[in-house]
Amino acid sequence: MSQPEVWLRGPIPGIPALLQPVAHGLMQCREELIARVSGLTPDQISARPLGAASVGFHARHAAGSLDRLFTYARGESLSPAQQTALAAEEHPDFASNIDRQLIAAFDAAVERALEKLRTTKESALLEARGVGRAQLPSTVIGLLFHAAEHTQRHVGQLVTTAKALASQTPRVG
After folding, report:
1. What is the 3-state secondary structure (H, E, C) of the chain?
2. pTM
3. For 66-93, what is each residue's pLDDT tens digit?
């Protein structure tokens, strides 16, 4: 029997109670991304069935947007490296080990996010934060929650696309 979803496994040590749903969502995304990206070929990862975004785009965007949203939650602006990474998210990569690269990058983004959650004080959750160049209004908790739900949305799309591609062509490994 497989394990229950992450949110049914109990609290994540060191994560404040109000941020447990964010941590659970990100950890569930990590498990689903690993399960679906592992063994896909570079062509499958870059494919855009029916014009939909590729598995590679969803994996890169999920990791990158997680990093960007947590940057805003810290009250910081995006770095030039983050802006460059954003511009590159849609570009396919046909490296032979792209599945492992995408998994490693997403895993690292989730680990950085979990570490930030561990150091976020619940008393800071309602602090105002500006988003983007326009400094649109949000709060720390608004950004952290959005980071989790945005990540879940892209991983869900990745899972659907990967399932469709896997049904069309054999996986490697």
Report:
1. CCCCCHHHCCCCCCCCHHHHHHHHHHHHHHHHHHHHHCCCCHHHHHCCHHHCCCHHHHHHHHHHHHHHHHHHHCCCCCCHHHHHHHHHCCCCCCCCCHHHHHHHHHHHHHHHHHHHHHHCCHHHCCCEEEECCCCEEEEHHHHHHHHHHHHHHHHHHHHHHHHHHHHHCCCCC
2. 0.92
3. 999 999 999 999 999 999 999 999 898 8
